[in-house]
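User: Teach me something about this protein's shape.
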Amino acid sequence: HWVSNGVFSLTPAHTFSNKIFDNMYFSSYSTANQCLLVQLSLVPSCPPELIRSIDNHVSTNILELLATNPFVTYDYQQQVYVLHPLYRNFLSKKKYLLTKEEIRSTIDDAAQWFYQHGYYSEAGTLYVEADDLEGLLNTLFTVGPLNYSFSESRDTLDYLSGLPWEKTSSMPLVELAMAIMQLNEMHVNQARNLLKSLLARLGIIEEPD
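Assistant: First, the predicted structure itself:
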């Protein structure tokens, strides 16, 4: 139940839809509800309990508002609210209504909520976005890196590969995770080389030639 973060070009159709969103399903809402909707656009999907957690009792009618918004659907199987991709894209352009701290805390709180409730894919995505390496590693080795999908492995590997050496040199689990991600993508030689390098650095085997 991931939702795409795709970027939409402002074609005439998109411009028209943005006007509908703004006039009927944003500007008419209270400032508190506007900000809450923007916060919800930061996460891939929105279980009711998470919405209440983010809301922190500021709004008394947010679930009723979501139920009457045609661009928000409720997935009864997964028990989450999902924003239409175009509507989510529209809301994401309103992040200026939030402070940097509100954005950071929303992503952090959502990542922890998803992790605690077993939504590990969503948690991993948000930990990457929050640059929370410890949270990501906890998630990886809770769910098992070999259970990651190809796209999840690629996104995670891109993030881990881009970390500065001084941040990861004392964390063997980073190299182990990268090796397993490489295996997920069927890059056997790269995975073998990473593991050899890690084991040599830990003094378990001799330094490879």
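Now, about its shape. Residues 101 and 107 are 10 Å apart (CA to CA). The beta strands are 72-75, 80-83. If you'd like, I can walk through any region in more detail.
User: That's plenty for now, thanks!
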